[in-house]
Amino acid sequence: MGGRLVVSNVTVLASAFCGTYVPPSRSSSIGVEKSLELYKDSIMTNREAGINVVREMMGDQAAAKLSSSADSNTFGAPIAAYAVDQVFADIWTRPGLDKRSRSLVSMSVMIAMRQPHEFAIHMGAGLNNGLTLKEIEEVLIQALPYVGYPAIATALTAAAEVIKERGLDVDKNYTGHRGLL
Predict the structure, then answer these.
(1) What is the per-residue pLDDT across 3-26, written as a single tens digit (0 to 9) for each?
(2) Strands 3-7 and 10-14: what pairing?
(3) Domain count for the chain
(4) Are 78 and 32 in a shared domain?
(5) What is the pTM of this model?
(6) Which domain range does residue 34 map to?
(7) CA distances from 34 to 31, 45, 48, 117, 169 (A)
(8) Which residues contact 144 (CB under 8 A, 6 or more apart)?
């Protein structure tokens, strides 16, 4: 997907979408060179904004790892860069839903896709975004009739690991869930 920067009446396709739009009235007054400088600056701003969102939701270690991956020029680096620049900088910061709500949506999608590793990551982010265990449990209950018991059992196992890692269950008799059985 290419992003567009409007310079006068010409659309310049960029190799990475950064969400920058320079209106024709402004671009004609500042010139093509300056418009392209603004575009380059916005890429840095997007990368920094994305890393800041990751840091807020997942901590310094995850932010450093994703930043390093995105900047590595190795296999998969463009995918990591897309995650930082678009998913975290553009989508997670959009108006309309707060981060708590976006976490609920993301966890629901991971449940439906049976992605326990990603569910655990988004559960941790959701907790960091202010969700409670009760709210996360309600997501599992709400998803149950739509995705079925096997998908919920998979998510429960992942949730148990997050609960254990964070020391969130205060019941001394708690031994962790193993799905539904």
Answers:
(1) 434 333 333 333 333 344 444 444
(2) antiparallel
(3) 2
(4) yes
(5) 0.71
(6) 1-94
(7) 6, 16, 21, 44, 55
(8) 152
